[in-house]
Amino acid sequence: MKKGSIIFTITLTLLLVSAAGAAAQDLYFGGYARNTTGVILDEDMKFSQVLNTFDLKAEYYGDISEIKAEVFVNQTDTNELEAGVKELYMDIFFDSMDLRIGKQQIIWGKADGVFITDVISPKDLSDFVLPDFDEVRMGVTALKADYYFNTVGLELVWIPMFTPAVMPSDGTIWEVNTPVTVSEINYPSETLDNSEVFGKLSYMGSAIDIELMGGYMWDDLPAINFDGSSGLRADYSRVAMAGGSFSTDIAGLIVRGEGAYYTGKDFTIKTGATLPDVSTVEKDFVNYMVGLDYSLAGFTLGTQFIQEIVLDYDDRIMLNDEFKNTMTFVIAKPFLNDTLMVEFFSYVGLTNEDALLRPKVTYDLADGLEWVVGADIFLGDSGDFGQYDDNDLVYTKVKYSF
């Protein structure tokens, strides 16, 4: 462990111990046990996933502080055990400010199923975007301060150590289909200069909610370089982001929007006639969404249009189109006194003519006991979803929460 990690870990430990020794208080435990079983819809009908999960949450309430910890243990179909800490942080409450220090998930923005300004917590894409999003987002060790001024709020975040996104492992069914393979990954060093900072100013009024945010950070996904000796190398670029989001209710119609402008983002380009002649080029990048939500006769209806734009596009860019247009659609309705929920969510890639269809039924069998049956159907020949056209699957989940 490097010096920066040691210092931050010691500081966090001292704060947690101090809070635990504070006066008087309540301790709460909760969590869930869950089995997830998925089957690929092909001739072999092989399992896509068999996973048993035990998740335990503990919360400790003090007079002016709280401590929250969430840990998990996964048992895979090969009987391997994986254990980890999702969150471990302490809240300290003041009259007009809250302070949170430790490993935490931080969620920004108004978009559903896509990440535009929601970039603070990196993503675990080991199973693509199929898990619940509170499991896709990874916790980061951070210091977060929230200031409150009536209807206006200010949030400041400092992350001392960079945490990259987790991509699917080679050899799995979610392995990313790229024309290059890297032999080295160049991570940013753990120094103060390489820390990340974010800020968000929000207004919550009776007619509209508005957020303005920005950050100076590392791109969670690397670009590929050829270093001329050891082969292809993955490098993370330093980027700046400015963005915002809003939502408003117009006669029962919820209108949402979110957008971000990135500078300093690197893209992989092909520099020769054959691989591995690749390098990177720096381009500005825009990502935005507009969405509508409406309730009708007990149905929840929603749609979003999402566009990504690489500005001053270079035709040599390998893995990104100049424009990528995507839409999402959702329809959901509860039945049987809200014990049965039927949902259908879909991504439709307009640029590459691909799609991901996600029907799901959730039934509350008893208090705390939930049964989910669903499917993930991929359509197309290329693009984010079409590359997984052979991975159509059905799954079931049985979850007991306590």
What does this structure look like?
The protein is mostly beta strands and 402 residues long. It has three helices and 21 strands. It has helices at residues 3-20, 133-136, 383-386; strands spanning 26-40, 47-61, 65-75, 81-93, 97-104, 140-149, 152-159, 184-186, 196-204, 208-218, 223-226, 232-235, 238-250, 253-270, 278-296, 299-310, 323-335, 340-349, 354-366, 369-379, 393-401. It has an 18-stranded antiparallel barrel. Strand 4 (81-93) and strand 5 (97-104) form a beta hairpin. The mean pLDDT is 91.
Radius of gyration: 22 Å
Largest sheet: 18 strands, antiparallel, barrel
Gross geometry: globular
Q: Which range does the strand content fall in? A: over 45%
Low-confidence sequence ranges: none
The chain-level structural class is mainly beta
Order of helices and strands: HEEEEEHEEEEEEEEEEEEEEEHE
Would you report the number of β strands?
Answer: 21
Count of alpha and pi helical runs = 3
Helix content: under 10%
Mean pLDDT: 91
Distance between the termini: 36 Å
